[in-house]
Amino acid sequence: MTIRVREGRESDIEGIAKAHVQGWRESYKDFLSPEALAGLSVEERMRMWQRALAEPEPRARLLVAETDDGEIVGFIRGGPIRNKEARLLGTEAEIYAIYLLDRIKRQGIGRRLMHGVFDHLTHQGFRSVGLWVLKDNLGARRFYEALGGTAGPEQSFDLRGQIVTEVAYRFELAAKG
Ligand SMILES: CC(C)(COP(=O)(O)OP(=O)(O)OC[C@H]1O[C@@H](n2cnc3c(N)ncnc32)[C@H](O)[C@@H]1OP(=O)(O)O)[C@@H](O)C(=O)NCCC(=O)NCCS
Fold first, then answer.
1. At 176, is the secondary structure helix, strand, or coil?
2. Residue 20 and residue 26: Cα distance in Å, rounded?
3. Nearest residue by C-alpha to atom 44 in ligand 1
4. Ligand 1 centre from 143 Cα, in Å?
5. Domain CATH code at residue 29
6. How many Cβ atoms sit within 10 Å of the Cβ of residue 172?
7. d(CA 10, CA 176)
8. For residue 144, which atom of ligand 1 is closest to its CA?
9. Is residue 89 part of a domain?
10. Which of these, 78, 83, 127, 132, has the minimum number of CB atoms within 10 Å of its CB?
């Protein structure tokens, strides 16, 4: 199976929302409660993505990973820091989300997606980028460390009735791995 990485567009919203829900269910089954995972909805995610893409933001980049037959099996979006919580990262830019389905993990696609966004952010003049990851999500943390990220502050919050802890990762764009 060949996986193509390309720019995402508004017509991809349904495919991205499906991958988002499936990605959570596959990747977070060991960290989040069955109730929290069962409560996820493609329609809700579609509305979230519609809102996110409604206002053009040229400094942000959305990339999708697509199979030969057009199924979206992964995506990433990153851009300028958005809100107060994100500002805790202490970086100018952030990765808003990155998800891959289980069947395409560990083939270098996550790295391609991250570098695609890093390159764009570097061209936009950003010098640092951060993200939040679940503290228990050791696979993703090893991935960020392999790409040169360093762990920083932690924050806990209520995610659909479950208290979870996230840890921040920071990347210096000039020295990306
Ligand atoms: C985290 C994620 C994006 C990584 O993408 P990927 O395509 O699987 O990773 P890559 O193949 O590009 O890996 C690059 C390097 O990162 C490290 N790495 C990646 N996944 C790892 C894992 N599960 N455990 C340990 N190291 C890992 C390795 O050093 C790897 O190089 P190698 O395969 O040559 O050893 C992907 O697994 C994913 O989408 N996970 C579920 C969703 C998620 O947790 N998202 C993060 C939300 S904050």
1. coil
2. 10
3. 140
4. 4
5. 3.40.630.30
6. 14
7. 29
8. 16
9. yes
10. 83
Assigned domain for 65 exists:
yes
In a domain, 72, yes or no: yes
Is 139 inside a domain boundary?
Answer: no
Q: Is the pTM of this model over 0.90?
A: yes
**Length reported for the chain:** 177
Q: How many whole angstroms separate alpha carbon 96 and alpha carbon 102?
A: 20
Distance, first Cα to last Cα, the chain: 27
Please identify, by atom number, the ligand 1 atom nearest to the C-alpha of residue 109: 7
Q: What is the pLDDT of residues 76-88, one digit of tens each?
A: 999 999 876 677 7
Rounded Cα distance, 157 and 147, in Å: 27
* Token pair listed for 97: 């989300």
pLDDT over 70 for what percent of the chain?
Answer: 97
